[in-house]
Amino acid sequence: MRVLAVDTTTSRGSLAVVGAEGVLAEVRVTAPDGHSRWLLSAVDVALRGLGLRPRDLDGFAVTTGPGSFTGLRVGLSSVQGLALACGARCVGLPSLDVLALAAAGSAPRIVALVDAFRGEVYAGAYDRLGGLDGDYRVGPLEGVLDGLPPGTAFVGDGVGRHREGIRAAVAAPVFPEVDLFLAATLGREALERLTRGDGGSPADLRALYLRGADIRLPTR
Predict the structure, then answer these.
(1) Residues spanned by CATH 3.30.420.40 within the chain?
(2) CB 68 within 8 A of CB 36
(3) pLDDT tens sequence across 58-79
(4) Residue 37: CA count within 13 A, CB half-sphere
(5) Which helix (H) or strand (E) holds 47?
(6) Rounded to an integer, what distance in angstroms lies between the CA atom of residue 102 and that of residue 219?
(7) pLDDT reading at 145 higher than 90
């Protein structure tokens, strides 16, 4: 079984083709201005390099957010289009979940943080195995840190900016080294789920926004 996984939720975009043998191909792009210019051409290059066509894939996976509105739409629509054309199943996972799965086993409590700008973070709290414990949230870091036990692990691009604040609020925090290009981790998890018979229709994929669109109405 082979799966194509895509992550375009932040400026760190990536795609990976994953099989039982491991990661077969991977593309990483840092694109602050968006991912629409490279994604589909990179899919083509990766598959051609492996001697595969889209119909040779058994499934697709995509991160569903939270993150950039434009990035989410690019990733979701691209995966939906490819999967519909191929008649393949899809797995959609929040980027926070993928971060937590990458850090599974690092601490009894794991908190995934993604920079939401405006001084806020997207956050999710997880158990040792990366299972979500509670709800996803967006807001100031202080509200996320309240009541966390000593030794909590923190992962994600929201950690770098807030490391000192975390250390001041949580005793003995842990900062595991986790790859912030998420497609390979997503692909491995999706492969396991699809092998078990999980996954659904591409039409079932839904974005996890957490926050409304930042739209400014024109002034008269």
Answers:
(1) 2-94+180-204, 104-169
(2) no
(3) 999 999 999 989 999 999 999 9
(4) 7
(5) helix 39-49
(6) 45
(7) yes
- Extract the tokens encoding 16: 């990976």
Q: Are 80 and 203 in contact (CB under 8 A)?
A: yes
CA 11 to CA 47: how far, in whole Å? Answer: 23
Copy the structure tokens of residue 107. 């601490």
Say yes or no: domain 104-169 is CATH 3.30.70.20. no
User: In this structure, what token pair is assigned to residue 218?
Assistant: 């024109």
Token couple for 85? 């054309």
Third-level CATH fold of 2-94+180-204:
Nucleotidyltransferase; domain 5 (3.30.420)
* Alpha carbon distance 191, 113 (integer Å): 25
- Residue 160 burial by CB count (10 A; 0-12/13-18/19+): exposed, middle or buried? exposed
